[in-house]
Amino acid sequence: MDITNKRNFVLLGHAQSGKTSLAESILYFCKATSRKGRVEDGTTASDYSFDEIERKSSINLSLLNCDYKGTRIQMVDTPGYLDFYGEVLSGIRAVDGAVIVVDASSGIEVGAERAWQILEENNIPCLIFINKSDKQDADIDKVLGELKETFSKSCVVIDSLEDSSLVEAIAESDDTLLEKYLGGVSLSAQELASGLTQAVLKRKVFPVFSGSALVDKGLVEFLDGVVKYLPSPVSRQKVVAGDPLKPEVKKEVQLSETAPFSAFVFKNISDPYVGQLTLLRIFSGKLTHNTGFYNVNKKVKERIGSIFFLQGKDQRNIEEASCGDIVAIPKLKETVLSNSLANDKEQFLFEPIVFPEAAISASVKPKSREDEEKISEALHKLAAEDPTFKFTHDPQTKELIISGLGDLHLTVMVGRLKKRFNVQVELGTPKVSYKETVTKSVKVQGKFKRQSGGRGQYGDAWIELQPLERGKGVEFVDKIFGGAIPRNFIPSVEKGVRNATLEGALAGYPIEDIRVTLVDGSYHEVDSSDMAFQIAGGMALRKAVLEAGAVLLEPIMDVEINIPEEFLGAISGDINSRRGRVIGMDVKARAQIVKAQVPLSEMFKYANDLRSITGGRGSYTMRFSHYEEVPHKIASTIISHYQTTRKQQQEEQ
Question: In terms of C-beta density within 10 A (0-12 exposed, 13-18 middle, 19 or more buried), how is residue 87 classed?
Answer without folding.
Answer: buried
